[in-house]
Backbone:
């Protein structure tokens, strides 16, 4: 059997709302016949203080380094995303590199911020098979 393609992914998330991030990461790790590398920085490993001017500039630079090499950006479209300046920066970075964006409805939610919907190449429900299929269809 040939080797599976390994997908390089950036999982967008808000550090204050990271439960869904960890659930999504676990789902992808457990997905059958699916290999991927995570280019995200989780809350327990912050790179810099985002509350200072220097910190914001440095974090934007580091986000750029994380988004640039990936095949696809995954955004968990919780309503907090509409108010997160960092998720908006991640969307803009993905768009600047023509990276496909997949927006995932959080578990049990029917609403998603318009800004995330408009940026997404595809919107999917919170199901492993739907998310993995969208990654395979959209990744560059």
Residues:
């Amino acid at each position: 059997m040939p080797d599976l393609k390994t997908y390089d992914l950036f999982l967008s998330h808000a550090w204050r709302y990271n439960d869904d991030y960890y659930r999504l990461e676990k789902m992808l790790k457990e997905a059958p016949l699916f290999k991927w590398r995570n280019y995200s920085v989780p809350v327990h490993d912050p790179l810099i203080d985002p509350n200072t001017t220097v910190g914001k500039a440095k974090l934007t630079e580091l986000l750029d380094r994380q988004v640039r090499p990936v095949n696809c950006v995954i955004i968990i479209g919780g309503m907090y995303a509409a108010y997160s300046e960092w998720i908006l920066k991640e969307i803009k970075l993905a768009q600047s590199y023509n990276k496909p964006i997949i927006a995932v409805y959080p578990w049990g939610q029917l609403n998603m911020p318009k800004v995330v919907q408009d940026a997404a190449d595809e919107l999917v429900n919170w199901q492993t098979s739907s998310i993995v299929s969208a990654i395979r269809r959209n990744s560059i």
